[in-house]
Write a structure and sequence with these properties.
Protein name: non-specific serine/threonine protein kinase
Strand content: 15-25%
Enzyme class: transferase
CATH architecture of the domain at 723-894: 2-Layer Sandwich
CATH topology of the domain at 723-894: Phosphorylase Kinase, domain 1
Largest sheet: 27 strands, mixed
Radius of gyration: 50 Å
Subcellular location: Cell membrane
Number of strands: 58
InterPro entries: Kinase-like_dom_sf, Leu-rich_rpt, Leu-rich_rpt_typical-subtyp, LRR_dom_sf, LRR_N_plant-typ, Plant_RL_S/T_kinase, Prot_kinase_dom, Protein_kinase_ATP_BS
Number of helices: 9
Distance between the termini: 178 Å
Membrane topology: Single-pass membrane protein
Length: about 900
C-alpha cells in the first residue's frame, strides 16, 4: 500500500487513540470523584470525639484527599483509595453502605473504635478486598454471607464484638484465607467443616463464643497451620488426628470446652508444638508415654489442669528441657506403676532446668516434695497444694525468682522451721500458702524477715502455737493475712495497726484474749476482719468505724460486753456480713443501724440486747439474713420491716416481742425461714404467702396466736374467740359474784355492827364473825357427804359439820341451791332476817360464806351453832307437860 493510500488509515487510528485517551481520562476522573464522595459520606456517618480527622476537609479538591490521615491511594492511580487505616480514633457510628463505592479498596483497618450496628452487606461488593479488621468495636448482627464473594480475602479479624448467628460456611470459598479471627463474640452453631480445607490457613481463632459440635476432622490439612485457639466454647468430641499430627502446629489452645477422649500421643512427640493447653475439659486416661527423641522439643507450656486424667507423671517428662509451664492441677493422678506410684520424679529439678511454672495442685500425689526443686533457679511459681505430700517442707531459699509458693492442704511438717528462714532469701516472693498442714511449734520471729513484696500469707488450720510475733509489722506490703484455726494465744499485737496495706485479716478460732487494739482503726483499706471464736473481751472499739472499706466483720463467739458502738453503723461499705453473735453485748441497738444500707447478713443473736427493735433497721433494704434471736427485745415488729423484701432468713425468736404479726410478711416471696417462736405475739396469723408452709414458719410458744387453718398447728381463731367469750363470761360472773358478795358482806357488816352494839350492852364479850373458806366447809362436812346431811329444803340443805377452831366444834352448815330460782333471794332474805331479828335465845350465826367452788360455780352458805335436840316449832310452842322446861335458843337456820 502506498503512503498516500495509508494516510487515511493512520488518521483513523490516531483519532481512535485520542478518543480513548480522552474517555479514559474522563472515566478516571469520575472514579476519583466517587472515592471523594465516599470519603465525605464516611465522615458524615462517623462522629469523631477528637481532632485526628481534621485533615478531612469536605471542601478540598479531588487532588488533595489522598493526603488525608488514614487514607492511602494507589501509586498507579494516584486519585484512587486503596486502604483505610483508622485505628483507635474513637470513631462512633455505623459503617455506611457507601463504603462499597471504594471499588479499588484492598484494606480496611478500623479496630479499637466504638463502631456499632451491623456490617453492611454492600461490603461484599469489594472484590479486591484482601484485609478486613473491625475488631474491638461494638458491632452486632450477623456476618454477611456475601462476604465470601470477596474471594481475595486473606485476613478477617472481627474479634471482640457482639456478632451473633453462625459462621457462614461459604467462607471456605476464600481460598487465599490465611488468618480468621472471630474471638469473643456471640457466635453459635458448629465450626464449618470447609474451614479445614483452607490450605493457606495459618491462624484460626474462634475462642470466647458458644460454638458446639466437634472440631472439624479436616482441620490440620493446611501445611501452614501454626495456631489454633478454640478456648471457652462448648465443643465436644476428641482432638482430630490430622490436627494432632500437624507438623507446622505451634500453638494449640483448646481450654475450657467439653472435649473428651484420650490425649493423642502425637502432641507430645511434635517437633514444632510450643504451647499445649487442654485444661478444663473432660480428657481421660494418662499422660501419653513420651519417647526419648524429644530432647530438643520446643514445648514450653503444658496445661492439663482440670480434667479426669490419671496415672503418674512419665519419667521422660524431663526430656522437655525447654518446659517453663507445667499445669497438672485438679485431676486424679495417682498412678498404677509400682515404686513411683503417684510420685513426682525426685530429679525433676535437674531434668527441667528451664521450668518456671510448676502447677500440680488438687491431685492425689504423695510422698515427699523433691529437694531438687531448689536447683530450678529460674522457677517462679510452685503449686503443689491439695495433695497428700508429707514430710518436712524443703528449703527453697535458693530460688531468687520465686514469686508464688502454694503447699497448702497436704500433710507437711515444719521441723525446726528452717524452711521459713530460708524463704527470707526469696526477695520477690509475693504469695505464700501453707494452709491446712500439720505445722506445729511456736511461730518464729523470722516470719517478719520474709520478702518486703509479700502480699499474701496463709497459715491457717495448722498446729502453730505461741503468740503472734510483734515483729510481724515489718511485712508492710502484706494484703492478706490468715492465721486462723490454730493454737495461738496472747493478745493481738498493737503493731498490727502498722500494716496499712492490709486488706484481709483473719485471726479466728484461736485462744487470743484481751481487747481489740485501738490501732486497728489505722487499717483504712481493710476489707475483711475475722476475729470470731477467741476469748476476746471488753467493749468493741469504736475505732473500727474508721475502717471505711470494711465489707465483712465477724466478732462472734467471744466475750465482748457493753453496748454496740454506733460508729459501726456508719460503715455503709459493710455488705458481706456483720456478725456480733454469741457475746455479752447489752443495751439498745443504736438508731444509726439504718446506715448499713448495703448489708446482706446481720447476726446479733445470743446477746443481752434489749429495748425495742429500731425502725431504722428497715432502711437496710439489702438484708438477706437477719438473726436477732435470744435477746431481750420487746415491743412490736417495726412497720418499716416491710422494706426488707429481699430477706431470705429472719429469726426473731426467744425475745419478748408482742403485738400482731404484720401482714406484709405474706408478700415476702424470697423468704425461706421466719422464726417468731417463744415471744408474746397475739391475734390471728396472716393467712397467705409463706404462712401456708409450716416448714418455713415457726410460731411455737406464742400462747395468744391463732390461725384460720389447722396447718400451723395453732388454735383456730373461731375456737379461740369462743373460749375468749367463755373466759369473759366467767370473768363477768366472778365480778358479779364478787360485787354481790361485797354487797352481802356490807349488809352483814351493818347487821353485825348493830348486833354488836346491842350485845355490847348485854354481852360485851361477843366475838366477831369468823372467816371460813370453801375448802374449810368441805373438810368440815366430809365433802358434803350424805352421812352429814341433817335436812334438805327447796332452797338449801343443812349439814352437820365439825370445825376444830369452834368452841363447841359441831356446827350446822346450810348450803344454798343456787341453781333453784329464788335461792339467792332466799339467801339475802335470811341474812336480812338475821340482821334485823333480836332475841337472846336466837341461835348464834358463826359466819356467812359467799365464794366460788374450784370449777368457778357460785357458792353460798350459812354457818350456825348446831342445836342438839328438837326443832324450832317444838321449842317455840312446847306442850303443857313441858311448860316448865328451860328455854332453848331459837334457830333461824331450819328454814328450808
Amino acid at each position: 500500500m502506498s503512503p498516500v493510500q495509508s494516510l487515511p488509515l493512520i488518521i483513523l487510528v490516531l483519532s481512535s487513540l485520542l478518543t480513548c485517551s480522552v474517555l479514559g481520562a474522563t472515566a478516571l476522573h469520575h472514579d476519583a470523584s466517587t472515592d471523594f464522595q465516599a470519603l465525605r459520606c464516611l465522615k458524615l456517618h462517623l462522629s469523631v470525639s477528637n481532632r485526628l480527622l481534621t485533615s478531612w476537609k469536605i471542601d478540598d479538591s479531588l487532588q488533595q484527599f489522598c493526603n488525608w490521615s488514614g487514607v492511602t491511594c494507589s501509586k498507579r492511580h494516584t486519585s484512587r483509595v486503596v486502604a483505610l487505616d483508622l485505628e483507635s480514633l474513637q470513631l462512633d457510628g455505623q459503617i455506611p453502605p457507601c463504603i462499597a463505592n471504594f471499588t479499588l479498596l484492598t484494606r480496611i483497618h478500623l479496630p479499637n473504635n466504638q463502631l456499632r450496628g451491623p456490617i453492611p452487606a454492600e461490603i461484599g461488593q469489594l472484590n479486591r478486598l484482601r484485609y478486613l479488621n473491625l475488631s474491638s468495636n461494638n458491632i452486632s448482627g450477623m456476618i454477611p454471607s456475601n462476604l465470601a464473594t470477596c474471594s481475595q480475602l486473606q485476613v478477617i479479624d472481627l474479634g471482640s464484638n457482639f456478632i451473633n448467628g453462625e459462621i457462614p460456611p461459604n467462607l471456605s470459598q476464600c481460598s487465599d484465607m490465611q488468618q480468621l479471627n472471630l474471638d469473643d463474640n456471640e457466635l453459635a452453631g458448629g465450626i464449618p467443616e470447609g474451614l479445614g480445607t483452607l490450605r493457606n490457613l495459618s491462624v484460626l481463632q474462634l475462642a470466647g463464643n458458644t460454638l458446639t459440635g466437634n472440631i472439624p476432622l479436616s482441620l490440620g490439612t493446611s501445611s501452614s497451620l501454626h495456631s489454633v485457639k478454640l478456648t471457652d466454647n462448648s465443643l465436644t468430641g476428641p482432638i482430630p488426628s490430622l490436627l494432632a499430627n500437624c507438623s507446622s502446629l505451634q500453638f494449640l489452645v483448646l481450654t475450657k470446652n467439653q472435649l473428651g477422649g484420650e490425649i493423642p500421643p502425637a502432641l507430645f512427640n511434635s517437633t514444632s508444638l510450643q504451647i499445649l493447653s487442654l485444661g478444663l475439659n473432660n480428657f481421660i486416661g494418662s499422660i501419653p508415654a513420651i519417647f526419648p527423641n524429644v530432647a530438643d522439643s520446643p514445648l514450653k507450656r503444658i496445661v492439663l489442669a482440670s480434667n479426669n486424667l490419671t496415672g503418674t507423671i512419665p519419667s521422660s517428662l524431663g526430656n522437655f528441657s525447654n518446659l517453663s509451664w507445667l499445669l497438672l492441677s485438679q485431676n486424679n493422678f495417682q498412678g498404677s506403676i509400682p515404686v513411683s506410684i503417684g510420685k513426682i520424679p525426685y530429679n525433676i529439678g535437674y531434668t527441667l532446668p528451664s521450668i518456671q511454672t510448676l502447677i500440680m495442685g488438687v491431685n492425689k500425689f504423695h510422698g515427699q516434695i523433691p529437694t531438687s526443686l531448689a536447683n530450678t533457679t529460674i522457677l517462679r511459681a510452685i503449686d503443689l497444694g491439695s495433695n497428700s505430700f508429707h514430710g518436712i517442707v524443703p528449703s527453697l531459699g535458693t530460688l531468687p525468682n520465686l514469686i508464688y509458693l502454694d503447699l497448702g492442704e497436704n500433710r507437711l511438717e515444719a521441723g525446726d522451721w528452717s524452711f521459713l528462714t530460708s524463704l527470707t532469701n526469696c526477695t520477690q516472693l509475693v504469695e505464700l500458702s501453707l494452709n491446712a498442714n500439720i505445722l506445729q511449734g511456736d511461730l518464729p520471729s523470722s516470719i517478719a524477715g520474709l520478702s518486703k513484696s509479700l502480699e499474701v500469707l496463709l497459715l491457717r488450720e495448722n498446729r502453730i502455737s505461741g503468740t503472734i510475733p510483734w515483729e510481724i509489722h515489718h511485712l508492710r506490703n502484706i494484703k492478706t493475712l490468715y492465721l486462723g484455726k490454730k493454737l495461738l494465744s496472747g493478745r493481738i499485737p498493737e503493731s498490727l495497726g502498722n500494716l496499712r496495706n492490709l486488706f484481709v485479716l483473719s485471726l479466728s478460732q484461736n485462744k487470743l484474749y484481751g481487747r481489740i487494739p485501738l490501732s486497728i482503726g489505722n487499717l483504712s483499706i481493710l476489707s475483711e476482719l475475722y476475729l470470731q471464736e477467741n476469748n476476746l473481751s471488753g467493749p468493741i472499739p469504736g475505732a473500727l468505724g474508721d475502717c471505711k472499706k470494711l465489707v465483712m466483720l465477724n466478732l462472734s463467739c467471744n466475750s465482748f460486753d457493753y453496748s454496740i458502738p454506733k460508729e459501726l453503723f456508719t460503715l455503709s461499705s459493710l455488705a458481706e456480713g456483720l456478725d456480733l453473735s454469741h457475746n455479752k453485748l447489752s443495751g439498745e441497738i443504736p438508731l444509726q443501724i439504718g446506715g448499713l444500707v448495703n448489708l446482706g447478713p446481720l447476726n446479733i443473736s445470743n446477746n443481752q440486747l434489749s429495748g425495742q427493735i429500731p425502725s431504722t433497721l428497715g432502711q437496710c433494704v439489702h438484708l438477706e439474713s437477719l438473726h436477732m434471736e435470744r435477746n431481750n427485745f420487746h415491743g412490736r415488729i417495726p412497720q418499716s420491716f416491710m422494706n426488707l423484701r429481699g430477706a431470705i432468713v429472719m429469726d426473731l425468736s426467744q425475745n419478748n416481742l408482742s403485738g400482731e404479726i404484720p401482714d406484709f410478711f405474706e408478700s415476702f416471696s424470697s423468704m425461706k425461714l421466719l422464726n417468731l417462736s417463744l415471744n408474746n405475739f397475739q391475734g390471728p396469723v396472716p393467712p397467705g404467702g409463706m404462712f401456708q408452709n409450716k416448714s418455713e414458719v415457726f410460731l411455737q410458744g406464742n400462747k395468744k396466736l391463732c390461725a384460720n387453718t389447722p396447718l400451723l398447728e395453732l388454735p383456730l381463731c373461731n375456737e379461740m374467740i369462743s373460749k375468749k367469750k367463755m373466759y369473759t363470761s366467767k370473768i363477768l360472773k366472778i365480778v358479779a359474784i364478787t360485787v354481790i358478795s361485797l354487797v352481802m358482806l356490807s349488809c352483814f357488816g351493818v347487821i353485825i355492827f348493830k348486833k354488836r352494839k346491842i350485845k355490847q350492852a348485854t354481852h360485851p364479850s361477843v366475838k366477831e364473825l369468823k372467816k371460813f373458806t370453801y375448802v374449810d366447809l368441805v373438810k368440815a362436812t366430809n365433802d358434803f357427804s350424805l352421812a352429814n346431811l341433817v335436812g334438805s329444803g327447796k332452797y338449801g340443805s343443812v349439814y352437820k359439820g365439825r370445825i376444830e377452831s369452834e368452841e363447841h366444834h359441831t356446827v350446822a352448815i346450810k348450803v344454798f341451791k343456787l341453781d333453784q330460782l329464788g335461792a339467792t333471794t332466799s339467801f339475802v332474805a335470811e341474812c336480812e332476817a338475821l340482821r334485823n331479828t333480836r332475841h337472846r335465845n336466837l341461835v348464834r350465826v358463826i359466819t356467812v360464806c359467799s365464794t366460788s367452788d374450784p370449777i368457778g360455780n357460785e357458792f353460798k352458805a350459812l354457818v350456825l351453832e348446831f342445836m342438839v335436840n328438837g326443832d324450832l316449832e317444838s321449842w317455840i310452842y312446847p306442850t303443857l307437860t313441858n311448860e316448865h322446861h328451860p328455854k332453848r335458843p331459837l334457830c333461824m337456820g331450819s328454814r328450808g
